[in-house]
Automatic annotation (TrEMBL):
Gene3D superfamilies for the chain: Phosphoglycerate mutase-like
GO CC annotations on file: fungal-type cell wall
Molecular function terms, GO-annotated: acid phosphatase activity
InterPro entries documented for this protein: His_Pase_clade-2, His_PPase_superfam
Protein name: Acid phosphatase
Lineage per the UniProt record: Eukaryota, Fungi, Dikarya, Ascomycota, Pezizomycotina
Coiled-coil boundaries: none
Length: 204
């Protein structure tokens, strides 16, 4: 409550609020999140284009914004594979140890920030890959995932500074996620998809 509490809140018990929260979690998890088999396919288009921006710095600036609805954030998270469950959320009872909580992963005003870090590379961080647009140097680039002002390590790529992922590994991870998700136009049965990707994040 922005202005304190309200007597109306006493109408509902703690169980009522927890049940309501879980119902919303189920809705978003299965509608457009990790529980929907098509979600990674949809979210990968954004992830792939954003990865290309991170690999190839643009003269247009260092910060790029995409404003979307929560229904678009859920597939992005599914493509990133940061809040996937070991097992799908059950519909018969509340999974209290779940990672997918709508109020935390995509609240009102939710944000996903992919931060590109350039750090000194003393030994174990020497991961530059010229094939992925990174010139050999004493510095390496990393990607750190910031979701709603909290750093969220990728479960399979967090060896960099502050639980970040080396950029070259992040790019390879994105490529593999695309193979797992499948081709968007094939999965969705689109015959006239054009170039097979999105163009609105591309900087010339």
């Amino acid at each position: 409550m922005t202005r304190g509490s309200s007597p109306w809140c006493n109408v509902f018990s703690t169980d009522d609020w927890e049940n309501f929260e879980y119902a919303r979690d189920l809705l978003h998890y299965y509608r457009a999140g990790p529980g929907n088999p098509y979600a990674p396919t949809m979210g990968w288009l954004w992830l792939n284009r954003t990865t290309e921006l991170l690999l190839h710095p643009s003269n247009e600036g260092d910060v790029f914004f995409s404003f979307v609805h929560d229904g678009d954030i859920a597939p992005m998270l599914a493509a990133l594979n940061v809040f996937d469950q070991p097992d799908d959320l059950p519909t018969t009872h509340i999974a209290r140890d779940r990672r997918w909580r709508t109020s935390q992963v995509m609240p009102m005003g939710g944000r996903i920030i992919l931060e590109r870090l350039t750090c000194e590379s003393p030994g174990r961080y020497q991961v530059d890959n010229p094939a992925n647009g990174e010139p050999p140097s004493s510095k390496s680039r990393f990607i750190r995932i910031n979701i709603n002002d909290g750093i969220v390590p990728l479960p399979d790529c967090n060896s960099g500074p502050d639980a970040s992922c080396p950029l070259s590994q992040f790019a390879e991870r994105t490529r593999l996620r695309g193979e797992e998700a499948g081709v968007f136009e094939d999965i969705c049965g689109l015959e006239n998809w054009g170039n097979g990707g999105i163009t609105f994040l591309k900087q010339e």
